[in-house]
Each structure stands twice: as C-alpha cells, then as structure tokens.
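Hey team,

Filing this mostly as a record. A colleague (T.K.) asked me to run one chain through the structure pipeline before their review meeting, and I want the input and output archived in the tracker in case anyone asks later how it was produced. No errors, nothing strange. Just documentation.

Input sequence:
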Amino acid sequence: GCLPTGRFFPWGGPAKKYMKRITLKMVSTEAKLLLIGIPVFLWTIIPIYHMILFAISPRDQATSGRLWPKNPTLDNFVFVFGQKHFYLDHFWVQMGNSLVIALSVGFLTLAISTAAAFAISRLKVRGGRTVMNLALFTYFIPAAFLAVPMYKTMGNYGLLNNQWALILAMVTIASPYCIWVLKQASDKLPYELDEAARMDGATALQLFRLVYLPLMVPSLVAVGTYALLLAWNEYLYAFLLLSKDSSLTLAVALGHFTAADDSPWELLMTTGLIYALPPAAIYYAFKRYMVSGLTAGAVKA
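Output structure:
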C-alpha cells in the first residue's frame, strides 16, 4: 500500500495501522456529528410535531397532553378552508395578501440588488462600494428599532394601511444584504468575459443581459428566495403599517387567535401549519440554488 508520505509498505505492516487509525478517526467524527445532530433535529422537529398534533386533534383533545389524539380528524382544515370561525373570516384574502406582498418584495429586491451589484462590481461605478458599505451599516441598528421611524415616514407620505408601505419597508430591509451577496458572487466572475463582450461591441445593457444575468442565476434565485421568505414571515412591520382586516397578512391575523382566553388552539395551529407550507415548498424547490448562491457565488473564476 502507498501512504501519503510516498513510502510503500506491505499490507499488514505500518499501512494496516495507518488505515485503522484513519477508520477510527472517521468513526469518531461521525459519532460527534450524530451527538450534535440528533439533539438539534429533535429540537427542530418537536414544535412541528406539536403543530401537526394540534391540527389533527378535536377541540376537546387539543390540550389533553397526549402524544397522539384518540380520534384524529381533518375537520380543523375544513373549518379553516371554509372560513367557519370569526377569526378566519378573511383567511383567503389574507393568504392572498401575504402572497402578493411576498412576491412583490422578492421581485423588487431582486431588481434593485441585481442592478446595484452589477454597477458596483462590473461597471466600477465611482462611490458604489461606499454606498454599499453605508447600506450594510444600517444592520447595526435592530430592525425593531426602525419600526416606529418607518411608521412615521409612511404616515408622512400617506401610505399607512396600504400594502405598498409594507412592501417598501421590506425592500428597504432586505436590499443591503442582497446587494452584498450579489456583489461578492459577481466579483468571482472572470473579467475576461466582460472584456471579450466589449471587444465584440456589447453595450453595458447587453453585457448585463447576455453575460451577467445567465451566470448569476444561482445567486439571483438565492437572494430572491431570501427576500420573499423575509416578507412572508414578517410580523412587526405588517402589524404596524396595516390595520384593516382585508389588507392584513395572514401572519398578523394569526395573532388575533391569542386575543381571547378560550382561543381555539387547534384552529391556530392548523392555520399556522397551512401558512408554513408555501415557504417550505419554495425552500426545498430552490435548496440547491440557495446553498450554491449564498456560499460559493455563481461560478468559479
């Protein structure tokens, strides 16, 4: 056998001891990963299990403490989809509001951050990096601290109780990070591609459309999905900027269930489970792009 040192040994001698040591090291590493991974998995999956448990439990068994209901039922889903509770009078409208706002935030954030990253990284716009760093500096301030100033700003422009207020607020929060991610990915693209395109007479717009966008697809999908999920799960800004039941997102409407002492927990968990399905589906659909786009950039130079 050949060892990494380049020396050859007959099997059964030092090579056997070396391979045994490598095997023990691999087993030890896997054992450590399991010891960490199993508790983390259980910590993550237990809340989801309880959501499902509440969702399939009749009301008189929802808080019984049993690990599985005696008579599992799907009646709670019928109640939610049929809007048969006064907390669910606008379920489909609010679900639609969440979808429209999330898609709008994802599209606008993607458009702004893509153009900004292209200008900073490929066109070398003067002062572009300074602007990006100043935008990132805003993350030193917790988003919750900016909620009241954002409320005041939207009130000055007459946008309160308008879905555009929430859309613009979420785009403002998501854009700096997305610009930074796309800029880092763009820096990894070979500049020879830009030079070759310019030698062929390509304009900046053609360079953006024909060279930059196709190579940036993984990162574009990653930041677009990030912005979409950020808006989908937002509660604080949606609670402050929207007040009409017909314009609320479902995330805010779920908070109404806790307003009474005898809240229907089985309906709350059923609605929460339904609300969690679209982002879970989106994440798993684009999981490959999320990993490659947020870590390794678009392509290797």
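Quick notes for T.K.: The two ends are 37 Å apart (CA to CA). The first helix runs from residue 14 to 55.
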